[in-house]
């Protein structure tokens, strides 16, 4: 069977299985499990090897979303991986609020004053978490830019937006699917301290994709 025929067969199988799952199942039986199975079939059809099957399974799982009883363990594992990846960083902190993870980076480590161009060291910091983000594809990523209160509201808002977009682009360049990433600027509107240095920050907020 040539490559084109394998792809066609895989797509047909994927369509059939997805339709069956949609028509016959609701709740936890639909989603990550079915998505992973469909993706695995696509991977095997396209690549005809174990590596392609595993890649396909990961893609399919991302399409399915997480059932409610899967989310806690999934985010537990991702939190451990994220903390391990960031253990040697002096620029970031990790916190968790229920099933939402937030990695906060000091903006001064990422950007010069009044600049939205990433410093070389910023790429090293982001590279620490790239593998984690890619290994847990059933999450969305919101990049938040924050500034201090110096300067006008409008200027700070625009600067925070440009900085958030710069981080999003850097993550995409390092292999994170850009369709998962949202870039948002908050300017000076969400201070967390009386310290300007603390308020200048970039948050990477990670949310689980839930089954609809």
Automatic annotation (TrEMBL):
Broad class of where this protein is predominantly found? membrane
Q: Name one Pfam family in it.
A: Gly-zipper_Omp
Keyword Membrane attributed: yes
Which superkingdom is the protein from? Bacteria
* Chain ranges of the OmpA-like domain: 98-210
SUPFAM superfamilies to which the protein is assigned, alphabetical: OmpA-like
Compartments (UniProt record): Cell outer membrane
Q: Which GO terms describe its cellular component?
A: cell outer membrane
Q: What are the entry keywords? A: Cell outer membrane, Membrane, Signal
Please identify the protein, giving its name as recorded.
Answer: OmpA/MotB domain protein
